[in-house]
Specification:
With 165 residues, the protein is mainly alpha-helical. Helix content is 88%, strand content 0%.
Amino acid sequence: MLQHIYQYYLGEKSGVIYALSTGVIFLLTGIFLLLKFHINPISKGLGTGLVIAGIILITGSFSTQYYNNQKIKSLVERKAETETQLQKSEIQRMDKVMNVTFHYAFITFAMLVIGLSLVILFSKSFYWKGFSIAFIMMILFIWIADTYNSKRNAEYFEMVKSYIS
């Protein structure tokens, strides 16, 4: 079971490259827009939003990498646990991840997209319209990544529940 948990955290780390790449692309695109089209308010807002979104994604990538590395290191301490104890704790943890974390993340993403869409529709400021578009792009990227992660976690959860040592 310990090997499966280790593989789980390695899989969690694999998504970091996508978020980091997207963060760098957002950051560079935002800087380009700010330097090249800073006079246009929608471009300025979009550029500012992309720079901030890029920094958020890059920071999130490094913190996710660090968190998963720490979890992998902590597996050494769990060698004394029996297979049944490991399975039981993973079932409890994954149940929370699948039924709480993903559920509330979905609601949060939906509310953010709705709120930002309202800003785009009703704001008179083109700067804030551009800024909102940038954040919708970031949220949609995270939402898509979270959907794939949810699928991978569901497969892992099923494996943990059916695991027989």
